[in-house]
Amino acid sequence: MSRIACSVIIPSRNRRESLIQVLEALGRQTVPLSDLEVIVVLDGSSGGSAKALEAWQRHGGLPHLRCLTQPHRGQAAARTQGAEAAQGNILVFLDDDVMAEPGCLAAHLQRHRAEDSIVVLGDYPITHPSERASWYALMVWSWWEDRHHQRAQAGRIASFRDLCAGNVSLRRDDFFRVGGFDPAFSGYGGEDFDLGYRLLKAGVRFVHEPAARARHQHRGSPAQLLRNMRQEGRQDVLLGRKHPELRRGLRIMVRPQGARTIFAYPWAWAIAAAGARGLLPLCALVGLRSRWRWFLRKLRHYSYWCGVRDALGNWRALEAFCAGAPPVPELELDVTDGLPTQPPAIWVEGPSLIHVRAGGRLLGTLSIAEPIDGPVNPTLADHLVEQLEPALWMAYLEQARTQKVEAT
Amino acid sequence: MIRRGRCSSRRADAFTPTKVLAVNAAEALPAALDLAGYRQALIVVKAHGAPVGCLRLACPDGRIALETLREAIAADPEINRRLRRAILMRWLMQRQPEADMRRLSWSVIICTRDRTEALAKCLDAVVAARVGEGEILVVDNDPSDELTRQLAVRYPVRYIREPRRGLNWARAAGAAAARGEILLYTDDDVVVDSGWISGVLSAFVSPRVGAVTGLTLPYELETPAQELFEFYGGHRRGFERRVFDDTVIPAPAAGLVGNGANMAIRRDLALTLGLFDCEMDVGTVTRSGGDTYAFYRLLAGGYRIVYTPEALVWHRHRRDDAALRTMLYGYSVGVFTFLARVLLQHRDLQALDVGMAWFLKQHVKQALLALLRRPDALPGDLVAAEWRGAFAAPWAYLASMRQEAS
Asked: How far apart are CA B9 and CA B13, in angstroms?
């Protein structure tokens, strides 16, 4: 009879030093180690990781550590294999560069004991790089910091993008009920968004738990970032194919003019991109920070569209993909007494149209162009004042007048 | 905004002082504003405590009738827009629970030296602006007598003495002694608005916001020198909230985000980065720029700085011409020593760019305007003071380096 409380699943590929640090951090958890099962899934790693793991386990290690291997098939497949082998009721997914702080797993478990059918989103911030660090390190830090903060804010509606598999936990039943990770996502990322969306559709709630904290030891380079962006382009296509209703919120829908030429003249673009890539370190060398950022931004866009091209093949397929998006959802909102206390049920994953009423009269239609990432009500208030000010002002005056009459 | 280039009596005999006052336009306006002998007024229009704009009105009979004020507000499209926005926002958000973000604890730090009279006014205002959990620190910088200490004991404040002369050393001493998470810095010649502390705290919206700056308006416009300073640009940064980071402006242009008389910084950042641990600002050879340098370090470190007009303070500009001249000279020295430090110590080449742009936009342009005797030109002696400051800066930088090394 197993008394395993939770199973920690760590996919890893050729990062044995960082992996050992992750395991050491798990050894320092406040939950009893005997209740803890750790499953490392080596995804096509060369022999080094398995050997290092074995040696580490011989010198103390963890009571329930298992190491599974698979030929290189991606994180999604690795995590699925880990989940299938898991004995615990709670699955905790960690990445192989995420070092859990001592209270991390206890906080995950605490939340699951208190509530049923939830996904617990843990924090895993990057430590602020020193001032002399590379611009790239600082850029990644700022981006990650914003992302974390965004998820943690009160008064927002959870988005499928909140689920990042680097430090997250959920019930085993929920995981398998929605079908687990989709192995079709074979590269970096994307599989967690897809799982997140299916969980949300199945009614599983996302809760953010700041005490479930870990440290993310991000190592990367601009080249790595560009590879990941290319993957992101592919994954967006995959995501949009699987869930057409998400298409309008994807960056693919923007289709800038330049993107078309990436499809038509791939060679010209490849040469230009190689040139720009060569200029990046040059910009860094002579201190042209804004220029460096500009080049990197352009390269990221380029890589993304290359990914889209990889997945769709040609421009016509892209047009068809975009045309296949279902119509923009239309919703109703009543602001007679201001915005409701709880965020109104609106669509936050992409554009939407909101018909706004006050005192039984239609004030106008709000057009939301982008996914709503922050707290819903302040964002709606901003849009309302920006787009419908005159009508809103009349409604406000009318209401102020009726209130005055009632008072007298 | 106060109109530039319309100060007809900047240094003429016909100078008339201007009354500075605030009205809350989101509630019922007063039947008339009595200006007590003044013949023009600078009216700061507020909506629910937040300033939305300001107007200059002439009033030969010493009072402004309600109708006049209403018409003046209605005639300014910007004020109108912001006023309606503030009212609508409040209406839309009426059912929202009060901002449930954990209230940050704060420490107000007032650095002073031998100016007890101004300090008393400053302390009165800060004490009245207290909200939530916080403390007030008075840092007495290399004082020549005991007057500041004697004044401080009469207020609910902690008194600290910093023997090393220089505003930055005083700021550093305040940061080291403070217990609050947010350090709010202001000067002794400032009277803070009653909503200052809450305005500052509400702008720390995310962990990436390292600092907050606010709006600085004139406390009084009694002399030509004060009017000139305001005309010259004062400390105003507008009535819209702005968010700065190094994607918005190059970090060496940090002077744009605000000034040390109205700034707030996270304490852990001020201490870990040692933002004020250098020989800079008033009381040293560099004369100013310590605040700008701190902002630079934050921007270069990837942090954000939020400018919010809701954090409002009233600054008493120097009354006499000589003090104004010295101050402009000091600003000029400070800007270029700051840029030299950024260029040579931080190897940030963007400082060259920013320095060149500033020199052209400020020094060269003002000199040309003065030479052409344009009506909107600064007086020649002030332009000369700025030029002298620019050329004194390299020596000041070397001197401050020697001082730091010793």
From this structure: 7
